[in-house]
Fold this protein.
Amino acid sequence: MEGALQKFKIDNKEFEIRKFDEKKDSVSELTELLHRSYKRLADMGLRFMATHQDDEITKRRLQKGESFVVEHDKKLIACITLYKSKGTNRCIWYNQEGVSYFGQFAVEPSYQQMGVGSKMMDFIESYAHEKQAKELSLDTSEEAQHLIEYYQKRGYRYIQHHKWDEVNYRSVVMSKKIT
């Protein structure tokens, strides 16, 4: 798939969702976007991987799944990566048949609260459904109440807690039926 997978407008501004393209897109630019987007969480003392990961980690995480970006005025302003479980994840729920999950979900701070993230979520839920996922899941810090509430409003429910070695908090795993 090349080019826009979906186009949308917010306040007469045009946006497009497309696959991350290693030949066209800068991993460094995406890493910086992640750092800016996750700064609020870092300021809360939460050490999400995206608060501090380097370009090599960003690239590895992009390659583990299918990665998408939102582009506006030829600039990357949002991203998300969809992962399909292969039964080898340390999180038990992510190993369930039919469960896909997403990560590296970020929106440029100046575009937050405009609806860009919601459009990205609509897209990834639909895309995961097209790829035969029965559930779409995520994990976030149990201390990031604003994120938990956001996902609950979108229909995600609590599944379990999980503690990743790479972070300094306990995660809440949430999931939504998308069939």
Notes: Residues 4-133 form a domain with the Aminopeptidase fold (CATH 3.40.630.30). The beta strands are 4-10, 13-19, 66-72, 75-84, 99-107, 135-141, 157-162, 171-177. The first helix runs from residue 27 to 37. The first strand starts at residue 4 and ends at 10.
